[in-house]
Design a protein that fits this description.
The protein is an all-alpha fold. The chain is 73% helix and 0% strand. Helix 4 crosses helix 6 and helix 8 packs parallel to helix 9.
Length: 289
């Protein structure tokens, strides 16, 4: 009689206890917005407080330096004034058209100069010289060429902004890592394909910085142009500034200046956000802006 031995039951090793990982709570949207907004609000509050103190000191009469409350009243009046919105629309249209023209011309120049040593030697320093030249210095010549017309304003906007955009693109292309270029060429990338898929994407962060600077030059040139080239049939923020200066309406003058400043800051924020997104997508880290 053969004894049968029962095989012991297989015992599975105990699985390690799983620790539930609780994801870190994401910051709430209102909190994120507040963290970005409060430094600017604090700066505005400090400026207004300083302004109010100077007004109370009696340093200048109120018809020269009005109070913040009086200027705030003018800003509120602008909101219900159709002529203000017409002036704002004309100014923004000029800004967009001038910057778009500068963008096309500056980008084409940047690509051409970076691709040709002869062209770089011929006009590379000229672009830098044009970039550093004050835009207001161009207006006597622009008025002589085009008269008191839209073309005179656009001429100076393009001369102010296009060199900055071109130099930004040239710098970005110059900073493309040589190993990346050699690798792309080994893989068969040449000519337009190399520029489209390798060079221009790599140069994008510096190019966007050039766009931001180009916009600043365009906006400054536009404001100077609207102060000097007054077209009666087209109200604008610059014409409004000149009108209030001639009639010594200081509160409306300062209110218009605040509108110009606010628009400049708004567009700067757009370009700063675009720059941050481009840098993050390329692993360059987020900027503080």
């Amino acid at each position: 009689m053969t004894a049968t031995l029962e095989s012991p039951a297989r015992v599975r090793p105990a699985e390690p206890a799983r620790t539930a990982v609780t994801p870190a709570p994401r910051p709430q949207l209102p909190g994120k917005v507040w963290n970005k907004v409060w430094p600017g609000l604090l700066a505005v509050a400090l400026v207004v407080a300083g302004w109010q103190l100077v007004f109370w000191s009696g340093w200048k009469p109120d018809y020269v330096l009005p109070s913040p409350a009086e200027v705030g009243g003018e800003l509120a009046a602008f909101l219900v004034e159709p002529k203000f919105w017409q002036a704002l629309g004309n100014t923004l249209l000029r800004a967009v058209l001038g910057f778009a023209t500068s963008l096309a011309l500056g980008t084409a120049l940047g690509i051409a100069v970076s691709a040709s040593r002869v062209l770089r030697a011929a006009i590379g320093s000229l672009l830098t010289g044009l970039q550093t030249m004050p835009s207001i210095a161009w207006f006597p010549f622009a008025i002589l060429l085009f008269g008191l017309t839209e073309n005179a304003i656009m001429f100076v906007i393009v001369l102010g902004a296009a060199p900055s955009i071109a130099n930004g693109l040239i710098s970005g292309i110059d900073d493309v890592p040589p190993p990346l270029l050699r690798t792309a060429q080994v893989l068969g990338a040449r000519g337009a394909t190399l520029y489209r898929h390798v060079i221009l994407p790599s140069a994008l962060p510096t190019y966007v910085a050039g766009l931001k600077q180009g916009w600043a030059f365009a906006w400054r040139s536009l404001m100077a142009g609207e102060l000097l080239v007054i077209i009666a049939s087209k109200p604008s923020l610059g014409v409004q500034l000149q009108f209030y200066r001639e009639f010594a309406n200081a509160s409306a003058l300062i209110a218009t200046m605040i509108v110009v400043l606010a628009l400049g800051m708004a567009f700067d924020a757009v370009f700063s956000r675009l720059s941050a997104v481009v840098r993050e997508r390329r692993g360059l880290g987020a900027t503080l802006l």
